[in-house]
Amino acid sequence: MVVGSETDLVFHALADATRRDILTRVIRSGQSVSELARHYPMSFAAVQKHVVVLERASLVSKVRRGREQIVHGEVTALRRVALLLDAYEEVWRQRAGRIADILDEDE
Amino acid sequence: MPVISSVKNVDALTMTFVAEFEAAVERVWQVWADPRKLERWWGPPTWPATFETYEFKPGGRVHYYMTGPDGTKARGWWTITAVDAPSRLEFDDGFADENFDPVDPADTTHGVVTLEAVGDRTRMTTVSTFTSAEQLERMAEMGMEEGMRLAQTQIDALLAE
Question: In the beta sheet, which residues pair with residue A83?
Fold first, then answer.
């Protein structure tokens, strides 16, 4: 399923604390990879790799500005995952309603 | 409305759902412990569940299927990992093939259910942990279908007024 694999990319990308931190920063405002790299005790190349994982999951996009690439957060992909959890919550709401009915019945 | 809260953690892929019922803990425990009660609420109304095997003990196997409006059967399995009557139940939950073997043994949801008395009510907390986004999607689809059906029922009721 295409949607499934896209969602998997999002979850994989979010499973790493550094990537979540990068995402939080670039959702606030666009930053270049070198600006981002200053925040982490790792090489520029390592940060670049994290950004690529986020980009593949459509969580960030890059825009060229002169010699630099500015990373921007894309909230749409995040929102899509949240919607899945909303729908799962709805499953439990329905179940809780029916559990209440069963409990009322056999009183 | 029995639901009091739900907390979703997108990063950790968990959902915590809390509901309270006007009943004693022992009676709420029965909706889990008694498969004839369980099958009345586990599947969506349009996909009622039938539990064929229900070994309600740690390590116990559970086989069930849900029957759709067109007769399609969606099969599932649980492995019960903890039973502490009447307050705690834990299980792994996954999709099954025609022989009730797991479609993908790694593709499971872990559920932890705790029941506690709050005055003369019972609070039920369920924590679902997903290991696969694909499975979450399938579960969410079931919920969406149910949501759509209920929305449709409400529209029908309005039109009939």
Answer: none
Do B73 and B66 contact (CB within 8 A), yes or no? yes
pLDDT at B84: 97
ipTM for this model = 0.81
Q: Is A92 on the interface with B (CB under 8 A)?
A: yes
pTM score: 0.70
* B15/A89 CB distance under 8 A: yes
List of residues 6+ apart from B109 with CB closer than 8 A = B92, B93, B94, B128, B129, B130, B131, B135, B136, B139
pLDDT at A2 over 60: no
CB contact under 8 A, A7 and B134: yes
Alpha-carbon distance A66 to nearest alpha carbon in chain B (angstroms):
34
